[in-house]
Design brief:
It is a single chain. The protein is of the alpha/beta class. It is 40% helix and 16% strand. It has a seven-stranded mixed β-sheet with strand order 2-8-7-6-5-3-4, with helices on both faces. A five-stranded mixed β-sheet has the order 1-11-12-10-9. Helix 1 packs antiparallel against helix 8, helix 2 runs parallel beside helix 8 and helix 3 runs parallel beside helix 4. The longest helix has 23 residues. Bound molecules: pyridoxal-5'-phosphate. Pyridoxal-5'-phosphate binds next to helix 3.
Length: 377
């Protein structure tokens, strides 16, 4: 099987099973207890947390959550709002941010959406025009899960500090972590989200980085774990294995190799499908994602035809498994004929050029079959 949907999720590193066993079976102790065995578990957890902060070059703390979605929710709902404040987010934020700000909007909070270009990069002029001094929260994703577009977060943070000094800046880094080197201190963000299953860690483990001195309100109350910001007995195996997965993923990262593979796929797909739109701008995107849209074609059918040949690719949000979402294709400026034909290839560090060649060959055959069916030949 050739798996090309790594932006949806990645395969967990098999060694993590040993880490799970160690902290769920052998050293299963509750980190909040006072005996030595518990204190040892706490130490291991703290070391793992510090390792993640070091790899991401942060200078603050991480609040572990049960997902990237929860960390995004924590950023949106946890920010201390003030009278007549405004929230600013980009047009193509992941639903974890989008649905959260829509809820606040329904409660009367002012929310504004910043437009993006056809590749998903935030329009700086529109951002500046909406950046008024009553902004309490800005949330702009670091890398887009649909197109791979990388936003210039460092610059957007600087603009925010000048025009909206009371604002906290959050960035959803779920797709960026493990794919590009991250320096949270240089980016200057107040809050940053990651999710372990996107870099070969366990599903159900996420985190919100908080820069030193940043204060937010907790969403979950209870025993006061995670500095009182996220009560619940910690997912010790999850936390410790996340540090392991992140370290291994960065050690294996080969951006140049990924770029070669993605360019090879893009060039060949364009030869096979003449009326295709590329949604990925290679100058400013992750090296592992290629998003494209085919006119008047149901991408879903291609996904199933390829699956029959042992190749797994992803669809765009417009034809996601749950329900049709037209928000992102509309924001990218795609016309309706392309909505159903949005597809996404996302590779990881183990994808080879041979995998790419096999994919291109099978894609050509599936596409030609689909064309013949559609034209009735
Ligand atoms: N943010 C982005 C950009 C994502 O791509 C995803 C998952 O696809 C999430 C947030 C949600 O992360 P999780 O699956 O851990 O809830």
């Amino acid at each position: 099987m050739i798996y090309l949907d790594n932006s949806a999720t990645t395969a967990m590193y098999p060694e993590i099973i040993d880490i799970i066993k160690e902290y769920a079976v052998d050293n299963f102790y509750n980190p909040s207890a006072l005996y030595t065995k518990s204190l040892d578990v706490t130490k291991d957890m703290k070391r793992a947390k510090q390792k993640i902060i070091d790899i991401l070059h942060g200078s603050g703390n991480i609040i572990f959550t049960a997902s990237g979605t929860e960390a995004d929710n924590m950023a949106v709902f946890g920010v201390k709002r003030f009278k007549d404040c405004k929230i600013l987010v980009s047009d193509i934020e992941h639903s974890a941010i989008y649905q959260s700000v829509k809820k606040l909007q329904a409660q009367g909070v002012l929310v504004e959406f910043v437009t993006v270009d056809k590749y998903g990069i935030v329009d700086e002029d529109d951002f500046i025009s909406k950046l008024t001094d009553n902004v309490a929260l800005v949330s702009v994703m670091h890398a887009c899960n649909e197109t791979g577009a990388i936003n210039d977060i460092e610059r957007l943070v600087k603009l925010t500090r000048q025009a909206a000094p009371r604002a906290l800046f959050h960035s959803d880094g779920v797709q960026a972590v493990g794919k590009i080197p991250i320096n949270l201190t240089r980016l200057g963000v107040d809050m940053y989200t990651f999710s372990a299953h996107k870099f070969h860690g366990m599903k159900g483990v996420g985190g919100l980085y908080l820069k030193k001195c940043v204060q937010i309100n907790p969403l979950i109350l209870g025993g006061g774990q995670e500095h009182g910001l996220r009560s619940a007995t910690e997912n010790v195996s999850g936390i410790i294995s996340t540090a392991y997965a992140l370290n291994k993923t960065y050690r294996n990262l080969n951006i140049d190799k990924n770029k070669q593979i993605i360019s090879y796929i893009a060039e060949n797909l364009q030869k096979i499908v003449p009326n295709m739109i590329l949604n990925t701008n290679f100058e400013r995107s992750l090296s592992n994602i290629l998003s494209f849209a085919i006119k008047n074609t149901r991408g879903e059918v291609l996904v199933h035809l390829l699956e029959d040949k042992g190749i797994i690719i992803g669809t765009g949000s417009a034809c996601s498994a749950q329900k049709a979402h037209t928000r992102v294709p509309l924001a990218l400026g795609l016309s309706k004929e392309y909505f159903d034909g949005m597809l996404r290839i996302s590779i990881d560090n183990s994808t080879t050029m041979e995998d790419a060649e096999e994919f291109v060959k099978e894609f050509a055959s599936c596409y030609s079959y689909l064309e013949s069916v559609m034209s009735g030949n």
